[in-house]
Amino acid sequence: GDVSMPYNDEVDATLDKAFKDILEFKQRTGMKIVINEFGIDTSGYVSSEDVCKFFNKITSLAKENDIAWTYWTYNRGFGLFKPNSLFSSSGKWRDQLVDALFQAYK
Q1: What pLDDT is stored for residue 2 in this prediction?
Q2: Is residue 71 a contact partner of residue 80, using CB atoms and an 8 Å limit?
Q3: Is 6 helix (H, G, I), strand (E, B) or coil?
Q4: Cα distance between residue 50 and residue 8, in whole Å
């Protein structure tokens, strides 16, 4: 069946805890941190609004804590670009998702 994972206080707290752990490691070791390839598993239902909240939370925490990041998924699932077809180079950017990723940098 479909699995739904709404963005809620539990998800928010989990992300805060993960970043707390990352920052403790960063401070203890003095190493630079890169969050590599984060994205959304689209095997269940997740609303675009919740995806945007998730993206914004990750990138805001990363910016606040001088952590680099990369985003996984260019044109599938919650990719930033929606091609018209596999055989066409035309398409469009998903502005709502792009804005959510970069809101912290505006």
Answers
A1: 46
A2: yes
A3: coil
A4: 9
